[in-house]
Structure formats: structure tokens, C-alpha cells
Amino acid sequence: MKKKANRSSKSETVKCSSAPPDNALKDRKTIVTDKRLETVVAILLGITTLLSAWASWIGHLHGGLQSINFTESNNVASQGTAQYNLSMQVYLADYITWNTLRDYYYDLEEAKDDGDQNKINRLNNKIETFQKQNVSDTLAESIKWMKEN
To answer: Does residue 19 lie within any of the structural domains?
Structure first.
């Protein structure tokens, strides 16, 4: 039971009978001991290590995929450039062939105007041989279309 404090100028300490004595607090076990603290720290470090390893694995996985995709895109770009270069080579070869044939046909028309049969025969043979050796399928179709129209 509690003792009532005197309302006088003197103050008394009120003690509760249910409070343990001071020496009992020293004997009582604490919840956080050094061993328990070490165990908790070890568990937290283990969890941190696992999370770090997982994050590293995920980073490596995505970094590897990015590297693979980058390499594939470079390969596709390289193949596209190779196709472009090939088509430009064919275009330029056809362009040069076309200009040469145009010159031969121009010379053939001059030979026909002059009436020089030997020159006409030589130019016809030259044109035929040149076409067999140098004209691509696409250019041959274009020449055929041009002659028909």
C-alpha cells in the first residue's frame, strides 16, 4: 500500500510495495545479452551477404544480356553495311557497264551512218561479248525493257 504524502513543506518519497528492491534488478536477467546480440548481428550479416550476392547475380545477368544484345545489334548493323556495300558495288558496276555499252552503241550508230560494214561487225561482236561478260541479270532486264519500249 501506498503511504500518503504529507502536505507539509517536507516531501517524502512514496514507495510502491510492488516495486522490486534495487539488488533484485541486478540479479534479474536482461533480454539483450552479448551472446544474443552476436547471434542477431551474425543473422543480419548473413542476410546482408545473401542479398548482396543476389544483387550481384542479377546485375551480372542483366549486364550479360545487355552485352549479348549489344553484340547482336553490332552484327546486324555490320551485315546491313555489308549488304549496302554489295548493292553499291553492283550499282556502280552496272552504271559503268551501261555507260560503256552506250558508248559502243553510239559508235555503232556512227558506223551505220558511215556505212562501214567491217566496223559494224566488229562493234556488234564487241557489244555481244561485252554484254555476256559484264551485264548483270538486273541490267539485262533493263536493257530488254528499254529495247521493247
So the answer is: no
